[in-house]
Amino acid sequence: MDCIEGIYRDMGWAVKNFHREDRRHERGIDLLCTKKDECVAFAVKKKPGQADITQLETFLANTKGMLPIYVYVNPPTRPFQERLEELQTNLEVWDSDKLHEELIYHESIPYLCFYFSAHPLFKNLIKIVKIIHEKRSTKCPPHEISPAEASTLWTVKDDCVKANYLLKFTHKKWAKTLMEKTEKHVKGYLTILDDVFEDLEIVNALCGEKIVSSFLDLSKKYPHVVGHYWEVVSHRTGWTSLIHSLEDEVEEANVERIVFDWIFRPRLPVMRDFYSSINHILEGFYGFAENIEDGLDWVFEDLIKMKI
Predict the structure, then answer these.
(1) Does the pLDDT value for residue 301 go beyond 80?
(2) Residues 6 or more apart from 33 whose CB is under 8 A from it?
(3) Does 39 share its domain with 170?
(4) Which pTM was predicted?
(5) Which of 104, 133, 154 marks a domain boundary?
(6) Looking at the predicted structure, is the pLDDT value of residue 250 above 80?
(7) At which of 69, 104, 139 does a domain end?
(8) Could you give the C-alpha distances from 298 to 137, 189, 230, in angstroms and in order?
């Protein structure tokens, strides 16, 4: 809903979000967008069911003279679908595909960030942070690094180098193409998204699951090394804001949200349009992997110097 609100505000419409501003008087309307004599009303549901039929009818009754748009993300239940089809001549309906096209065409930058954060590769990078976060309280006693520790740590490092290289290559491959484009065309946008997603799928297939597996192996065999990783990166540029935000966090869902903000929020001010946003998002993937690899280098250096 926030993304829909954002694109209408960007187009110069005044927008009232009843969920946030006036829930008691929403009359079935979630967003009301006005500009001069035009008025567009939105009702938004994740997965409408039979219990939502009354709201649909209320929505239609209170949007006469407006353009009513009903949005749903997941397919509705059969009773709701049947009633929606009966009323569909009186309103516009956006399913998840239509919503995706509208948000892409209008270059919703927050939506693009959310869209890429759902990619399996991003999810795997998140899993690595969760593994490190889980062992943050595990202390590393002073000791001489053993050959077995070094070997396991080197396996993780090797997998990170591959991921970092492939993401850097992917970003470099797309950067020039994206920054030279100016035409606004939804089909062109969708083609680029598909192609970029496919490239990230290749990176994920080559090293996404593997890097998570190697981090898990390190965490199970030598949890103190992963705990030391947390301690080492907590003082390093690029990591401090994330570590500070995660220090006392216990909810996994919140960990994902915090990492999302760490990767994407600093880049939002320079994401001007669709093309620059994709470029900076790919840069964010590459930067994420680079930070993880840097952390491993620092841990190696620290353990080698460690005295008993």
Answers:
(1) yes
(2) 8, 13, 14, 15, 39, 40, 41, 42
(3) no
(4) 0.88
(5) 104
(6) no
(7) 104
(8) 18, 40, 11
One domain, residues 79 and 155? no
In terms of residue numbers, what domain contains 45?
2-104
| CA angle (289 as vertex; 214, 270 as ends), nearest 5 | 160
Q: Which two tokens stand for residue 139?
A: 């202390």
Rounded Cα distance between 32 and 16, Å, is 5
Burial of 209 (0-12, 13-18, 19+ CB in 10 A): middle
In the chain, how many domains are there? Answer: 2
Mean pLDDT of 115-124: 95
According to the model, what pLDDT value does residue 25 have?
54
- pLDDT for 308 equals 53
**Which residues have C-beta within 8 Å of that of residue 15, sequence separation ≥ 6?**
5, 8, 9, 31, 32, 33, 34
- Looking at residue 251, its amino acid is E
User: φ, ψ for residue 69 (rounded to 5)?
Assistant: -125, 120
Average pLDDT in the 83-95 region?
89
Note whether 170 and 264 are same-domain residues.
yes
Is 83:53 a contact under the CB 8 Å cutoff? yes
| Whether residues 203 and 226 fall in one domain | yes
- For residue 165, give Cα distances in angstroms to 123, 158, 287: 18, 11, 11
Which candidate, 7, 58, 55, 13, places its Cα nearest to that of 32? 13
Same domain, 228 and 254: yes
Give the integer Cα–Cα distance in Å for 10 and 138: 47
In this structure, the answer to whether residues 139 and 195 fall within a common structural domain is yes
What CATH number is attached to the domain comprising 56?
3.40.1350.60
* 66/161 same-domain check: no
DSSP 204: I
- Does one domain contain both 100 and 166? no
Look up residue 158 and give its amino acid.
D
The contacts of residue 305 (CB under 8 Å, 6+ apart) are none
